[in-house]
Structure formats: C-alpha cells, structure tokens
Amino acid sequence: MAIVPLWTPENTTVLSSVFTVHPGKVVVLWAVGFNKYKFRVENEVATPMQACLHRLIHDFSGSRLPSTKDTAQDCCGWIVDVNHVSSELMADIAVSTMNCLWSLSLCNSVMAVGIPGSYQLELNDATMVGTANVYADLYDIGQVHAPEIFVGG
C-alpha cells in the first residue's frame, strides 16, 4: 500500500486530513518531525508535542461523496480531502482509554487503529504545521502483527 501524508502543503491548520478505517482494515500511523515539547510562551509548563486522535461522526445524507486523496487504495479511497466535503459533523470525540488520550508523539511515534470509523488528528502545537507530519498506511487486519501498537483493539 502507499503511505499517505495526513498533512499536505495545502493544509495550514492543526487538523489533519480525515482518514477512514473500514471493517477488516487497519490504518497504521507514523509520526515524523515531532519535537519533544510543544512551543511554549514564557512561564508556560513544558508539554509534550503530540497529535491527538479524534473520532468523527458525519451525516453525509443529501451530500455528494467526499473526494479522496488516494484513489488507488481499496474501499473506494480512505483519505478524505476535507476541503471538498459537504456534510454535517455530528460529533468530534477525542479518543481515550481510561482518561489517557490516544496520541502520537516523539516518544510514541507509531499507532495502529483497527476500529472502523472516520478519524482526524489534531496537533497541539500550531507552530509545527508544515514541519511535523503523520503518515498513514492501510492494511488488511491480518497483515499487522504488533499488538503493542494497537489502540482500542
């Protein structure tokens, strides 16, 4: 499969492109270019730079299907160009387990998401947009044999 960047040169916000995990599939995410700590102003506590995972629930009824960035992938495309989507966002949920956010960082740079749904990452450091990135790759669920990188699975 082709590895796809979730932040493209056209993306100038802390929010990544939306990616979809279809049943029987796993999206493996790799963080690159992350600093140990996010940029901080004077007297602010040092906080690790991270990209937090959000679960999105959209209502696409009455709208056209979203265009995709990687049409060579299975499942009719899985990376959505959010600039061309007309849908109503029903929920945006920061994903966590026992109050621990699912996130990528310099020290935790790989994650596999196998729970079907649409997701988006959010950087906690706007100064790193265009420098840090997360790359996504789509696999069949049986191809990934690394339980330590699975979240929620």
The stretches of 5 or more residues where confidence is low (pLDDT under 50) are 68-76
Q: What is the total tally of β strands?
A: 13
Oligomer: single chain
User: What is the averaged pLDDT score?
Assistant: 78
- Quickly count the helices: 0
Radius of gyration: 15 Å
The N- to C-terminal Cα distance equals: 22 Å
Shape: globular
Instruction: Provide the succession of SSEs.
Output: EEEEEEEEEEEEE
What proportion of the residues form beta strands (DSSP E)?
A: 35-45%
* Helix/strand/pairing category: mainly beta
Approximate helicity band: under 10%
Main sheet makeup? 6 strands, antiparallel
Please characterize this protein's 3D structure:
- With 153 residues, this protein is an all-beta fold.
- The chain has strands at residues 4-5, 18-21, 25-32, 50-59, 79-80, 88-94, 96-97, 100-101, 103-105, 110-113, 117-123, 133-140, 150-151.
- It is globular, with a radius of gyration of 15 Å.
- The model is unreliable at 68-76 (pLDDT under 50).
Task: Offer a few descriptive terms.
mainly beta, six-stranded antiparallel β-sheet, globular, single chain, 153 residues, five-stranded mixed β-sheet
